[in-house]
Design brief:
- The chain contains eight helices and eight strands, in the order E-H-E-H-H-H-E-H-E-H-E-E-E-H-E-H.
- Helix content is 48%, strand content 16%.
- Helix 4 packs parallel to helix 5 and helix 6 crosses helix 7.
- The radius of gyration is 16 Å and the shape is globular.
- Bound molecules: adenosine monophosphate (AMP).
Length: 215
Amino acid sequence: MNIIILGSPASGKGTQAERLSKALNLYHLQTGSLARKLAETDARLKEIINSGELIPEEEMSMYVINFITTEIPSFSNILFEGFPRFVSQYTALESFLRTKGDDIDAVISLEVSEEEAVKRISSRRMCSKCGATYNLLTNPPKGDNCDVCGGNLIQRADDNEKSVKVRFENYEANTKELIDFIDKKGKLIRINGERPIDNILNDILTTLKQRHVTA
Ligand code: AMP
């Protein structure tokens, strides 16, 4: 089973992806953290990411497919977060998985307004060690450090109002076409992201069951 979770910056997709991957025993492939890892040794990627822009779509597909090939030999049971963002990335992933006898089973679109996203962004924190994400308002850590590994919690370099606006506009512009494309395939599940975290997770799990994606 392979599932994609889509959502604008600060839609809560990171939090839901973490919980969903645990609940369904899926590998959580977060392309934002993959990109940040690659950027540690690539100044061009670092500049793109910190400005809030996207890595060229085909280049990012190549990074993701390389990562799956080297790190996830089963080519299955993956929860994709942050990828695909374009129709070209969806079709590249679908073609790749099909050559391995697998497929994309469902796509969750977590929906929040731009106003809500900008409000949430200033209280977002990320673990500098393991990448776990928190929100001081909606999903706070138990103490001052990361609940998972004890690492320092930091604010992402691209979590500022200017960058969030660029990322939100990019998301709206690019992902609308992708969402329509997936909807036509009958694989889209729209979820209201402006509710308590547990309600959203339950809603996703129930819908996946109803659609026979999970048992
Ligand atoms: P995210 O954590 O998903 O907001 O991603 C952080 C940054 O990583 C983005 O602003 C992009 O620069 C890069 N990135 C992540 N996923 C993709 C993708 N599917 N296509 C292009 N760039 C991406």
